[in-house]
Amino acid sequence: xxxxxxxxxxxxxxxxxxxxxxxxxxxxxxxxxxxxxxxxxxxxxxxxxxxxxxxxxxxxxxxxxxxxxxxxxxxxxxxxxxxxxxxxxxxxxxxxxxxxxxxxxxxxxxxxxxxxxxxxxxxxxxxxxxxxxxxxxxxxxxxxxxxxxxxxxxxxx
Length: 157
Hints:
Layout: H1 2-31, H2 34-37, H3 44-78, H4 86-116, H5 118-121, H6 124-155
Helix pairs in contact: 1-3, 1-6, 3-4, 4-6
């Protein structure tokens, strides 16, 4: 069980790192290429398409880790392991809900707006959906971080 716990923590850490990298490191470069390359390189709409492609590729990992986390926590609970607890199941379940929302609700809405063109992505409705998707991703990352810290302390005891 110890090796599964290590793999579990590595997957959580990987996911947190990927989410952090996409939001904090990749997005600013993609959306502001003029700071590095000068003006006229990419429009905001083109940058959005590139960023969406990054998130589309990340979505499978988000779902896989969230589903694996929930399954792992449930297996601990049902096996009556001494380190199972309700809070970790709640965290992992909430992470799975947020991941599912991001992948199956927000991502398709954003992709659909991009397919309809630049005018659709300039609307207030799109800005609202996009801002909500950012909050869902930040919430997911915070929950995973909480679970990582909680499980890191529990597994090292």
